Amino acid sequence: MKKRLLFVVEAFGGGIFTYLYSLSNKLIDSYDICIAYSVRKQTPMNFESYFDNRVQFRRVTNFTREISLARDLKALHELKKISNDFKPDIIHFHSSKAGIIGRLGFASSKEKKFYTPHGYSFLMQNTSLIKRSIYWLIEKLAALTKCTTISCSQGEQVQSLRLTRHTILINNGVDVSELNNALNKGEDSSTTDQHSVLTIGRISKQKNPELFNSLALKNPKFRFVWVGDGELRHVLTAPNIIVTGWMDRTHAVQQLRSAKYFILPSLWEGLPISLLEAMYARKICLVSDVVGNHDVISDGLNGFVCKDIADFNHRIQQLDNDEIDVKGMLNRAQDDVLNVYNTDIMAKEYADAYSR
């Protein structure tokens, strides 16, 4: 009889969504899987179609991004009911909100419990130092429960070890076969734009749209494309910026395929799936010097790590003037995904962790 695995996720969109459907589809032959989720603006309308039809879903209507004691307690009540109905052997909480509510609310339950932060909340740069300190204390309290933390990058593992010794590292990965299919759709109608700079994600403080906009203003001959949407869309005022809004996976990957440069100027990260996809698609990757980004990109070897806007701008100018030979760099980036950051390796390591 297969073990029953319950995934709990509040942030059911963006990179975490891609990660979850890739992982679920790899594990479904070995586990009965149920996903307790909430809907965000970036959650695909047809999200169930991404998953194997054996995966079950239960919506948690009271999950919210913001802290709300009343809503959080109601969400916990919903999760308890879902757990009682599904009767999981293993529960895996994803992202800070689900991780806090789940670890504290299920502290006395007998299931094996795991937690993946996907970017700790106390690393967020859009909140005050006092708030970040409170988030750290809450994470520290939750880490005292009987639950194993699974970090998704080496940098996140360093932070996890500050909180608990019950932590292991399993790098995020992408499904290479599925990504190949998406990249090959409509191939005849798409060519690389030599002056196209692209990013993917929610237009939020985390993704640093201010730097993206400033960089576009400094490089008017380039076309800057933001695949996604969000509350800071009004910051993107440069005339050479195109905001596509949220797109389904096929169209988002087609946008990626036609770009030459992939930029990720984030203020904090976990281990971004979009970056791994860009590396595999052989795009020149320029990323900010933060946890998650610099765990994957080694400056000058498989991409560029930039400390500020001057650094980003300097690299783009060098690349545009053909001052850097990028062929070996692109090969190395793609090989890193094939050999380290792929879902076959990731799924095997998760199955090993769940069985321990």
Short summary of the structure?
The protein has helices at 14-27, 69-86, 96-105, 129-142, 154-163, 176-184, 209-218, 249-258, 273-280, 293-296, 309-320, 327-339, 343-355, and strands at 3-9, 31-37, 56-59, 90-94, 112-116, 148-151, 167-169, 193-200, 223-227, 241-245, 259-264, 284-288, 304-306.
What does this structure look like?
The chain has 356 residues and is of the alpha/beta class. It is built from 13 helices and 13 strands. The chain has helices spanning 14-27, 69-86, 96-105, 129-142, 154-163, 176-184, 209-218, 249-258, 273-280, 293-296, 309-320, 327-339, 343-355, and strands at residues 3-9, 31-37, 56-59, 90-94, 112-116, 148-151, 167-169, 193-200, 223-227, 241-245, 259-264, 284-288, 304-306. α1 (14-27) crosses α13 and α9 crosses α12 (327-339).
